[in-house]
Fold each of these.
Amino acid sequence: MARTVRFRTRHGVIVALDAETVDDCKRTIDLTTAVEGVVGYKLGMTMALNLGLAEAVRQLRAHTDLPLLYDHQKAGPDVFDMAAKFVALCAKAKVDGLILFPLAGPRAVEGFVGESLKQGILPLVGGDLPFPDYNMSGGGYVADDALERIIDKSVEVGANHFVVPGNTPDKLAHHSARLKSKLRAPVFVVPGIGPLGGKIGDLVRAANGCSVYGVVGRAVYGAPDQAVAARALVDEAMAAA
């Protein structure tokens, strides 16, 4: 079973720590961790490559007790027998959740999602990005129904947190409607807020009553007042609930 990761509000914001320096990432946490509705932080390659994953988590944990979700720039499109090794390292580093894009097939879903659950890490499962040329219908390389099939397999394995592009409310409406018939309380994490065109209020309204957490990077860490920027996004989400 995944360790209990409790987001402290029903809707809110996960701040992406994608600033250029480690100190900038820590400053973002210090300025936003007390903002009600900021529910966690997404740790990506900037700090992991600078410090190593375990050291990055150790340093960030000194600044917040909110969940730390590791995005290995979309782990999961790999051979399935790498899953146990990868997840074991993440568990050792004490991350709370893993963002996974298991595009390598059903065995990748079983491996990466299943191992996360075994190791006590919350899997947040996706397979779609907020870019118009990602799917085949937009000129990209990934089948339009790939995320739907990944989600269905992930539900079989035991996942209930899913990553859906935040600048396509129609996709969120589609996936949330489907999952409400399969799960008691599906949760959606939505990147693509702000500069990529997504509006968190639109997404909350599109989610058929499911919890929605916007993943926000530049719109917060690039703002003149990061706390004010975070609070405005949270307020927008709550007003749409």
Amino acid sequence: MVELIPDALPWRDVYKLLIGAIVPRPIAFVSTVSKDGIRNLSAFSFFNGVCPKPFIVAFAPMFRGQDGQKKDTLRNIEETRQFVINVVSEDIVEKMNLTAPEFPPEVDEFEVSGLTPIPSVDVAPPRVEESAIQMECELEQILQFGDGPGSGFLVLGKVIRMHVRDDVYVDGKINPDALAAVGRMAGDDYVRTRDRFKLPRPALPQEKS
């Protein structure tokens, strides 16, 4: 078995280990607006839930690899303390991918992708109309780890309103077949969520009397 010490490797090599080992990863398609009202839309695959009460979600934007600066999404959240997480399904994943380049701040990725911005209820950033699940979030906390390329942040947000498409919300639960979410692998690879299997959670063994 190969033994690896991350601190002894270049950060790009560690990044390859991270995205190859932690799979599949859910995708947060984050919409924000700058203090000047410029819309931004960007996808992050370091994304997960934290807890339901309060409903906290987290995603982790890294410093930009090309110049070591903060990404537009992070700067917008620092300025406005608001964002929307849009879930990525099979039907919008190709349009999501069009937002991947690190565009200048003045570029509106809604226009680049052809996706439709619609007003949120409680926050300023728009939602992606084509997304089956949209979470309006207020910033709770930002944690920074390291500085410059290879380093990054953990953004914690409180979901204050959730929008779920009718066919996806069934009997108080999310219908995974209707959602058809996609996940991120390494490189250019993605994964569908169609191939699933059940594994009942075992109960604790009965104590002997």
Amino acid sequence: MTKLSFRALMGGAALAVTLGGNAFATECIAPADAGGGWDFTCRQIGKLLYDLKLVDQPVQVTNMAGAGGGVAYTHVVTDRNEDADLIVAASSATTTRLAQNAYAGMTADQVRFVGAIGGDPGVIVVAKDSPFQTLGDLVEAIKADPTSVTFAGGSAAGGFDHLKPLMVLKSAGFTDFAKVKYIGLDGGAEAITQTIGGFTQAMTGDMSEIAGFIKSGDVRALAVLTADPVPGFEDIPTAKSQGFDVEVVNWRGLYVPRGISDDEFNAWAEKLQAVADSAEWKQIMADNGLAPFTKVGADFQGWIDGVVIDTTQLSKDIGVIQ
């Protein structure tokens, strides 16, 4: 390399540093492997933040799987507490684990929950060639032999995905929850693969995780856990329409480090609200079976505090925790 070309190269590097340096200014951590609900949240919200010019540069998505989101949560609390350029995908699974003390002593007040901008309906699905044709078929099989059905889910044992079929069973008068088999995996993509491959008899997850698999015909949804059918997926019966009084919607949103300023927190709330209000986000919700569910800013944080209390009690009621 000549001195001239070397100097030109270094000059370009210096210019990059001067203009802001990294190719990415904002990082979104998805606390699971690629393909699941948290990954979906980071990639879709991150793309719109840039497309809508709410951030100056493309958002970097980092997949940080482990401990059902606990690895990412601990990383944020211990290493990134004042990083105002960091956002993290969160959901009802996050608050469930915090309510159950699944993050090794970490608590919900160690981060700031900035908002939710969509509700991801809970679903229970089986492989396309499964003998179970209805949710009732599945419930009756478990009642007859609780060990005959194994569920796969994208949360740890006792987590939000695990709670969904237990709530359905509770509504049917079943109480022997400890005998129901559940395999917790790092994200919905792994869980759906287990069910398609025949390693588990059913998958418990969220609509955004399995919408593509439903459209491709790889799985059949026995029920969606909402009050009404989901737009775009009206052929999937609700659990309520089949006699099970259960509604479970997984909110999709973000948290940020606790140590950022109020102004920085409010700025993220405003950006997330702008994404929620956009036509692009409304189309993404329609395409992926999400229901409108918008709570942003300080009101959302207060709502989260109540959810953690309620989830703790529910977990005790069904025997997940003492």
